Amino acid sequence: MGRRRKVNAHLPLGIRLRFGTYWYVRGSAPWVRLGREYGPALVKYAGIVGAKPEVRTIQQAVAQYMEWATTRKKKPLRASTVIGYKTSAANLAPIFGHVELQDLEASDVYRYLIERGDVQANRDRALLSAAYSHARRIGAFKGEDPTKKLQFRNEELPRKRYINDGELAVLLSTASPKLSCILHFSYLTGLRQSDVVRVKLSDFDEVDGLLIETGKTGAVVPIGWSEDLRACVEEASRLWTRKERLYLFESAPRGRHAKRGVGPYTTGGLKALWRVARAKAGIKDVRLNDLRRKAGSDKDSDEDAQNLLGHADVKTTRRHYRAKPKKATPAR
Q1: Do residues 178 and 306 make contact, with C-beta atoms less than 8 angstroms apart?
Q2: Confidence check: pLDDT of 1 > 60
C-alpha cells in the first residue's frame, strides 16, 4: 500500500499536481497530462480509469470546489475570497468534514448557524452551498442541497466605524510616503482596495479626471478632478518614477516575492503595509476599508456619496457608508 498523501490529499488516486498542471500517474508508464483546470482534469481522469471522480464527503467536496474555482480560466476566485474560504473550510472540517454529502440535513446546517451565531457562520454556509453546487455539476451528488432549504441567516449589522479628520491626519503622517499617498488617494476616491491597486495611468483624463470600472460590480465610476486629487496623483508621479510604469501605484517586490516582478500592489501586500502604519499611529479598531466609509460619510448628501462609491442602490450607501456622527443642538 502506498504512503498517504501529506499534500493535496483530496486528489483522487493517481492524480498529481505539478506546477499548476494535473497529471495521471501510474507506475513506470508515461505521465498523462490532464490539464490546468481541475474540473476538466477530473472528467479526463474519469475517462481514463472508467470511474467517476471520488467526491463522497463534505471535506472532499469543499476541497475540490476550491481547487476548481481558483484554477478556472474564466473568473477565478479573487484573492480575498480565497482567504475567506480557507477560513470557512477550516471551520467546517471538524464539524462536517467526515459527513457524506447525502447524509447532511438542513437541520444540521441550521444548528451550526445558531450555535455559532455570528457572521462568519453565514460565510461558512456560503462555501458549503458552493461546494454542493459544484458536486452536482460533476455528478458526485444528485440529492437536494441542504443549504438551500433554510430561510435563515445570522443578522449582519453594518460596521459604523468612522475615521475622524484627526485620526486620518495621524495615519497619513506616520505612514511611509508611498503608503501615505495610497491612503490619501483611497480616501479621496472612495475606491475599494482591489480597485485602488489596479488604477492605471491610462484611466486618467487631463480634463475629466478618473474613469474606472470597479472590479466587484462592474460599475463605471467617473471621478472628476479636485485640487486634492490632482495633487495626490502628481505626488504619486514623484514617488513612482519608472518611465514604463502602467499603474499609478507600482510595487517592486523583493525576496521570495521578487519573481512576481514589477506591477501593481496586491491587496494582501497593501494590508500588510497598513497594519504597520496603524500600529505606529496607535489607532485601534480601524480597518483599511474604513477609508471608503469615511469618503462616503464626508459627502454632503446620500446621493453624492452613492455616486462616488458607485452603488446601484442608495440604501446600501445609507446603511453601510454614512457613519459620520451628526451634531445635536441643545434643547434651548
Answers
A1: no
A2: no
Q: What is the dihedral of CA 253, 255, 257, 259, to 10 degrees?
A: 90
Whether 58 contacts 34, CB under 8 Å: no
For 129-141, give the DSSP string.
HHHHHHHHHTTS-
3-state secondary structure of 239: helix
Residues in the chain: 332
The CB-based long-range contact list for 217-220 (8 Å cut-off, 24+ gap) reads: 217/310, 217/312, 219/310, 219/312, 220/310
Rounded distance, CA 2 to CA 25, Å? 13
How many angstroms from the chain centroid is the CA of residue 195?
A: 12
Q: Assess contact for 34 and 17: CB atoms under 8 A.
A: no
Phi, psi (5° rounding) for residue 223?
Answer: -125, 115
pLDDT tens digits along 177-215: 999 999 999 999 999 999 999 999 999 999 999 999 988
Query: Residue type for 129, please?
Result: S
Nearest to residue 109, comparing CAs of 135, 128, 90?
A: 128
Q: Does this chain's domain 56-157 share its CATH topology with 165-321?
A: no
Q: Which CATH superfamily does the domain covering 165-321 fall into? A: Intergrase catalytic core (1.10.443.10)
pTM over 0.90: no
- Residue reference for cell 505612514: 175
Helix axes 79-96, 106-116, angle to 10 degrees: 110
Q: Is-contact 159 320, C-beta < 8 A?
A: yes
The domain 56-157 having CATH identifier 3.30.70: the answer here is: no
Instruction: Give me the residue label for grid cell 444540521.
Output: 108
Cα 148 to Cα 66, 92, 228: the distances in Å are 19, 17, 48
| Domain residue spans of the chain | 1-54, 56-157, 165-321
Q: Annotate 32-45 with DSSP letters as a single string.
A: EEEESSHHHHHHHH
